Amino acid sequence: MPHQESSISHSSPGPWKTSDPATVEQQTRFIHLVRLGWDLRTLGVRSSLVLPVAGDPVLEVHAAAGILARITAVRRHRGWVFTWRPWWARLWRRGAWVWAEADNAADIVMSIVVSEAGA
Predict the structure, then answer these.
(1) Cα(39)–Cα(49) distance, rounded to whole angstroms?
(2) Where are the alpha helices (DSSP H) in the chain?
(3) CA 47/CA 2 separation, integer angstroms
(4) Within 13 Å of residue 12, how many CA atoms lie on the same side as its CB?
(5) What ranges do the domains of the chain cover?
(6) Left (φ > 0), alpha (ψ -120 to 50) or beta: where does 95 sit?
């Protein structure tokens, strides 16, 4: 049986293909948070992606007692980072962020977030 093409044109721009910089940034933020949520899942950690109508998406990391952290993805001049501190406390302090592209980002996030929750 010959391979049939779908009726969707591959040349038409889809929802993920846009030239609007703000939309591209929001989609990239979303993708990083979804990947982190999946990586946390493989560690046995429950998380939820929150997509507010206005504002940026947030990944909530859950524990039995409630929410451990709210993680955001932020673009910096050298790449994307995950941070779990309020905007006024993210001033590049050690332990306040991790590179989003790091292979072990979920491990780093969990080790710091859990240690902060226990403190």
Answers:
(1) 13
(2) 21-42, 105-118
(3) 43
(4) 6
(5) 21-114
(6) left
* The token pair that represents 57 in the structure block: 């998406």
Taking the C-alpha atoms of residue 106 and residue 51, their distance in angstroms, rounded to an integer, is 20
User: Sign of the C-alpha dihedral, residues 95, 109, 36, 64?
Assistant: negative
pLDDT at 13 over 50: no
pLDDT tens, position by position, 50-84: 999 988 899 999 987 788 889 999 988 889 999 88
DSSP codes joined into one string, 47-62: EEEE--SSS--EEEEE
Q: How far apart are CA 72 and CA 30, in angstroms?
A: 9
Q: Which two tokens stand for residue 86?
A: 């309020």
Q: Output the CA torsion sign for 94, 110, 61, 71.
A: positive
Sign for the CA dihedral angle at 25, 27, 29, 32 comes to negative
Q: Say what the pLDDT of residue 119 is.
A: 55
Kind plus residue range of the DSSP H or E element containing 67? strand 66-76
Arithmetic mean of pLDDT, 96-112 = 90
